[in-house]
């Protein structure tokens, strides 16, 4: 499956700016999101659901999600809620708890 967009998700204590040196090298439709609670982020709850909503709002068609650190939790939640919108996930030193475990 091809991806219509690449969505870059930052980790804890970061914002979308951490991807600014990566974005120019991607030769596709790509966007870096700011999760709720960070400067410039949408006014959504600073919760796991608010983070997942932000990831899903950035998707277009079938999107490839690249998640760093704590962004892995937001991405896993988004993928669980709407798997049909996500063509794949790349975890970059991301938090991935075992099934049934919490972080």
Characterise the protein shown here:
Helix 1 (48-58) crosses helix 2. The protein has a four-stranded parallel β-sheet with strand order 2-1-3-4, covered by helices on one side. It is globular, with a radius of gyration of 13 Å. By secondary structure, it is an alpha/beta fold. Helix 2 (71-81) links the parallel strand 3 and strand 4. 21% of the residues lie in helices and 21% in strands. The mean pLDDT is 92. It has helices spanning 48-58, 71-81; strands at residues 5-9, 30-33, 63-68, 86-92. It contains two helices and four strands.
Question: How many helices?
Answer: 2
The span between the termini is: 31 Å
Biggest beta sheet summary? 4 strands, parallel
Rounded mean pLDDT is 92
* SS strand fraction: 15-25%
Précis, in short:
The chain has 103 residues and is of the alpha/beta class. It has helices at 48-58, 71-81; strands at residues 5-9, 30-33, 63-68, 86-92.
Q: How are the SSEs placed, and which strands pair?
A:
Layout: E1 5-9, E2 30-33, H1 48-58, E3 63-68, H2 71-81, E4 86-92
Parallel strand pairs: 1-2, 1-3, 3-4
Helix pairs in contact: 1-2
Features:
alpha/beta; 103 residues
């Amino acid at each position: 499956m091809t991806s219509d967009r690449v969505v870059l998700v930052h980790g804890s204590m970061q914002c979308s700016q951490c991807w600014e040196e990566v974005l120019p090298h991607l030769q596709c439709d790509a966007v870096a999101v700011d999760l709720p609670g960070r400067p410039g982020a949408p006014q959504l709850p600073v919760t796991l659901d608010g983070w997942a909503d932000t990831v899903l709002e950035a998707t277009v068609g079938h999107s490839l999600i690249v998640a760093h650190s704590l962004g892995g939790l937001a991405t896993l939640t988004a993928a669980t809620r709407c798997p049909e919108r996500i063509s794949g996930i790349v975890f970059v030193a991301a938090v991935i708890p075992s099934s049934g475990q919490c972080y």
